[in-house]
């Protein structure tokens, strides 16, 4: 009898766990499907047709008006259980100049980025590591003995004046300035070193997403992080260049492909100045200072913005350049996540165009920032490729790229 009671308790316990799991997963599903905040065209009004297929969910007729020109729209389950309030912000349905052109990126860090510390063979034959546990990857050196450090060459020049005495290195760590005392080590060649690996710039190829009518541009759809530390680079500025695509390394399962290109770092090839590197892309001023050769490779077309609630699972297209100019290629949106923790992973897109798949295998590195179009509007940009499925990747809503 005791055995049966224990068995019944065990079954009941399992059922309760299953019920809790269903409730939790159901809540997560609905939270991802229903946005916390949306923008709407004030001239067209509120349209929730894309969300009407979500089961058990209804949207109230009453609203709570805020002081920002926006309002709160109640969302309920089964018509009675309050689920969340959606912030609705009426805006003008702006148009932007959509690109898809390949661009060269050059950025300088704000200070000198510490990649790692390292050992030094000193002049007396000892192995020393003077910066170990004092500096760490991701620190930015901004001064040495109160002398400003703007680039790696500044640091190299200041190290020539060292005599073995302790120095004070001012670093920026997680938005705080920290003074660190280091004692340089004289190596076997007689030079004094701090035992650190540093970097002060980065460059590469990406895709220009848009230019606004007031001359601001957005590209990539994600920020640029240091390859060694994985941290978002803190920059003091940079330039955007026209880039010529010379070849494509085709992507395959487990092996992301890549666009190979040529960037001419000349003043007549500059098309913009970079002033921001954020989670949602790189931004700056579109200057238009480019030569006649470069001008042919910058494609811009005026398009209306499509807000995230307008996205639908189904056919779409992308604009990109894989060597023969900007073209529009077929694709489809397979999943939409209204509230993803990473805003640049808000939907999943799959390349379906046979020509693009034959050329690149799908999405390759260098295509980040390629505009995604649906129903005659620009709705987002490509940001990532799936390593195990080169034809698919993540995208960011265009409204998130514009919200900077």
Structural commentary:
- InterPro entries: PDZ_sf (IPR036034), Peptidase_S1_PA (IPR009003), Peptidase_S55 (IPR008763), SpoIVB (IPR014219).
- Its EC number is 3.4.21.116.
- The chain is mainly beta and about 400 residues long.
- It has helices at about 1-35, 150-160, 290-295, 355-360, 400; strands at about 35-40, 55-60, 65, 70-75, 80-90, 95-100, 100-115, 120, 125-130, 140-145, 145-150, 165-175, 175-180, 185, 190-195, 195-210, 215-220, 235-250, 260-265, 270-280, 280-285, 300-305, 315-320, 325-335, 345-350, 370-375, 375-385, 390-395.
- It has a 19-stranded mixed β-sheet that branches. Strands 1, 2, 3, 4 and 5 form a five-stranded mixed β-sheet that branches. It has a two-stranded antiparallel sheet with strand order 8-9.
- Strand 27 and strand 28 (about 390-395) form a beta hairpin.
- The longest helix is centred in the N-terminal third of the chain and has 32 residues, at about 1-35.
Summarize the helices and strands and which ones pair or pack.
Elements: H1 2-33, E1 37-41, E2 57-59, E3 64-65, E4 71-77, E5 81-91, E6 95-98, E7 102-117, E8 120-121, E9 127-128, E10 140-144, E11 147-148, H2 152-159, E12 167-173, E13 176-182, E14 185-186, E15 192-193, E16 196-211, E17 216-219, E18 235-249, E19 258-263, E20 270-278, E21 281-286, H3 292-295, E22 301-305, E23 314-321, E24 326-336, E25 347-351, H4 354-360, E26 371-374, E27 377-386, E28 389-397, H5 398-402
Parallel strand pairs: 1-5, 22-27
Antiparallel strand pairs: 2-4, 3-4, 4-5, 6-16, 6-22, 7-10, 7-16, 7-18, 8-9, 10-11, 10-12, 12-13, 14-15, 16-17, 17-21, 18-19, 18-20, 20-21, 23-24, 23-26, 24-25, 25-28, 26-27, 27-28
Transmembrane segments: 12-30
EC number: 3.4.21.116
Organism: Blautia acetigignens
